[in-house]
């Protein structure tokens, strides 16, 4: 006998575009010959900072159709002249625009918020210096950074990718504008799927780039040509609505994210599946359906999708056994020390944790309400807001921190879950 099971009809979430694709495409389009159009770009603090920085470097980016399309007039080269660029809080802006400045011609000063100034940049400064640019930074290799350059020859570059993959992505994207071929050898690379995204988008803009073998990448001179690109919804952002479905026994579909996505963070749904949710990835949409119980009792390596580890950690107290997340040492160097920030907030909610240099264990609990300390980290704010769907009296000390990647986050959570979304 078969038992009929009923599934809730999926709600459709409105997830804005990928930050990582938007900021890569902006840079590649500026470097290309011709005019490119980006459809459905992310419009948030990180991407507006990137767009403004490109304008300050002399490139024209026009917002059309109420920001539905960003049109970029490519110059076929790096920036020229003398300018100052403000990267705000955006790691991708500092790490992608410093090499782009270095393949230009002139004097460029990059700076950003106190939060961004505290994040590592030294491997990039050292590599650009080795390639022939004159680079000055604050002691320790931090912003503000001044780059004086007449363009770069290529050659052989060894990159340490243990702190961030963004150094490698930034250098790769500017390599086709160097005068000779560049051969990269990469060690200890974290967040590898973001480098795959970089290589795919470089090829889409016409670059000649080959990966000889794991960790050895060759880029040929020849620049980029303009293209039109539709930006996928952001998979890291989608993690919040997928997690919300998993803990509320509802179903949420994100259209536009499916097989063939450029974003490694879509694998976050594999962790939800281990927690007992049903996951269906189709060609152009992904649906997560929550069950009546959340399972724990496993250890997940989230090093390749570390922007989503806080989403798992925040809902983990609701699981029936402990969950350990490992491979996340580099998340201590992001908008906040994310392992410490998650543990601190879970403790405030009455949840026990253990932590180590690169791991965190969260124990089952019945969390009580608390005021979440966001540390100006958008992902702390969004991840704990999801937990707020299941516990009363959860508030954020800084709800506006979500603007870095999803200014409309609280409205969308309330639209999807009008009865249980926390009153922020
Ligand atoms: O290249 C990118 O677009 C990104 C790479 C990742 O950083 P790390 O390489 O520092 O882990 C990720 O955390 C960040 O949000 C975006
Ligand atoms: C780490 C992040 O951002 P970035 O490094 O691009 O500032 C993030 O969005 O979680």
Q: Can you characterise this structure?
A:
With 424 residues, this protein is of the alpha/beta class. The chain folds into 2 domains: 19-219, UDP-n-acetylglucosamine1-carboxyvinyl-transferase, Chain (Alpha-beta prism); 233-416, Enolpyruvate transferase domain (UDP-n-acetylglucosamine1-carboxyvinyl-transferase, Chain). Helix content is 30%, strand content 25%. The longest helix has 14 residues, at 235-248. The mean pLDDT is 96. The structure holds shikimate-3-phosphate and phosphoenolpyruvate (PEP). Shikimate-3-phosphate is lined by residues 20, 92, 164-166, 169, 190-191, 194, 306-307, 330.
Short overview:
Its main location: cytoplasm. The protein has helices spanning 19-31, 45-56, 91-102, 114-117, 122-130, 166-174, 192-204, 235-248, 268-274, 309-315, 338-348, 378-387, 409-416, and strands at residues 11-12, 33-39, 60-64, 69-75, 80-86, 105-111, 134-138, 142-149, 155-160, 182-187, 209-213, 216-219, 228-230, 251-255, 278-281, 285-289, 298-301, 323-326, 353-356, 359-362, 370-372, 394-396. The chain is an alpha/beta fold and 424 residues long.
Distance between the termini: 48 Å
Class based on secondary structure composition and strand pairing: alpha/beta
Which second-level CATH architecture of the largest domain applies? Alpha-beta prism
According to CATH, what is the class of the largest domain? Alpha Beta
The pLDDT mean sits at 96
Bound molecules: shikimate-3-phosphate, phosphoenolpyruvate
CATH superfamily of the largest domain: Enolpyruvate transferase domain
Tell me the number of strands. 22
Radius of gyration from CA coordinates: 21 Å
Rough shape? globular
Number of helices: 13
The low-confidence runs, each spanning 5 or more residues with pLDDT under 50, are none
Largest sheet: 4 strands, mixed
Main-sheet strand order equals: 1-14-16-15
Portion in strands = 25-35%
- For the record, the count of structural domains works out to 2
Share in helix: 25-40%
Predict the CATH topology of the largest domain. UDP-n-acetylglucosamine1-carboxyvinyl-transferase, Chain
